[in-house]
Amino acid sequence: MARSKNKNVGLIGLGIIGSRVAGALRDKGLQVFVWNRTPRPEQNFLGSPVEVAELCDVIQIFVADAEALLETLKQLVPGLTAQHIVTAHCTVAPESMRAAAEVVERRGARFLEAPFTGSKVAAENGQLVYYIGGDEAALKQARPVLEASSKEILVIGKVGDASVMKVATNIVTAATAQIAAEGMALVHKAGIPPDLFARAMKCNASNSTTLEMKLPLILAGDFETHFSVKHMLKDVRIASALAKQFSLDLPVTEVSGDMLFAELKQGRGDADYSSVAQKYFPAPPAAEKPVEKPIPPEPKPETQEVATEPPEPEKPAEPKSAAVEPAEAPSPAAEEKKEEAKKENGQEKAEDLEGLNLSGGFRSWFSRRASASRRES
Predict the structure, then answer these.
(1) Which residues have C-beta within 8 Å of that of residue 199, sequence separation ≥ 6?
(2) Residues forming a β-bridge with 88
(3) For residue 346, what pLDDT is reported?
(4) SS (H, E, C) 14-39
(5) Per the domain annotation, does 136 fall within a domain?
(6) What is the average pLDDT value for the chain, to the nearest integer?
(7) Statement to judge: residues 170 and 197 lie in one domain
(8) Residue 282 burial (CB < 10 Å; 0-12/13-18/19+)?
């Protein structure tokens, strides 16, 4: 596949942020070609990172961690040339970002470290803020692409510096959610409606965009993921590791990490990081979907079961018209002809059974038996 000379944009990683950045780029009129480790039904989805490199000069990478970043680059580098610029947007340790830059630059391509701040809503609306570490010439070439999904681009310094800035800002965000939950819990235990805490913070000098966004969601028990517990915990741990390298004591950061880890152990690693508030304000249980009962088949016509109820005794048959006979016995000659006819038709047995009729026809039966006896004698 020959590489296009057009200003296409490649994007690798279609998670919460990457998928929304792709949409924002398209909204700005850019042609976006994408790849993800798990195939997605996405517009211009290609078969490999190399295919992305064949079509695009600028390639943005939105993956979760250092392992995913280095694995993606391993698949991408065979397609890289001096014309390519790779921008890495994950939050990782500075040494991991420098290792990634070395892999790219070894192929003659250029690398920009570009972690960001902003939620999925900001990504969707093209309102992210990028912290940049790397070559100024590379930034100049990639800036139009970065501007298409951001409201500000802040140059921090060399590769690795932007990652330090990103984790430093994230520990403030993590601590903000934790201390806001604690303040609201204190108010609630004092018998004051928690929503008044949110209103009080609006008038407080320590109010922030984070509080404006998170407090109403905490009050509503809404912990839909904007930035997950597991990813915030990763960033806090990176900050703790850096603090040890610099011989710094960061007690609030350590507590924030402990609270996030407690949420992870509760099985809420994919929930929003504000889920730390569930220690004091548990979310209402998710409404269970009603179990759909199978539609029963149409009832079959009822049949009488002999095993359950015995059948009612049959009522005596209604008297037949032939059973109402005159009291006088018929003449011997007529009776004789009748008996002969019955013998010929084999009906003598049937006539005997008729004599058992309880309707009162016994007289007729005895008369016929008497006639038969006279003939035999």
Answers:
(1) none
(2) 61, 113
(3) 47
(4) CCHHHHHHHHHHHHCCCCEEEECCCC
(5) yes
(6) 84
(7) yes
(8) exposed
Which of 324, 319, 320 is closest to 363 using CA atoms? Answer: 324
Contact status, residue 204 vs residue 215, Cβ threshold 8 Å? no
Report the predicted TM-score, pTM, of the whole model to 2 decimal places. 0.73
Q: Are residues 84 and 32 in the same domain?
A: yes
Using a 10 angstrom Cβ sphere, with 0-12 exposed, 13-18 middle and 19 or more buried, the burial of residue 203 is exposed
Question: Can you say whether residue 11 is alpha, beta or left, with left for phi > 0 and alpha for psi between -120 and 50 degrees?
Answer: beta
Amino acid, single-letter form, for residue 268 = R
DSSP 317-342: PPPPGGGS--SSPPPHHHHHHHHHHH
pLDDT of residue 358: 39
Which regions of the chain are under pLDDT 50? 1-5, 287-293, 301-330, 342-343, 346-366, 374, 377
Question: Under DSSP, is residue 85 helix (H, G, I), strand (E, B) or coil?
Answer: strand
Domain, as residue range, for 340: 332-346+362-377
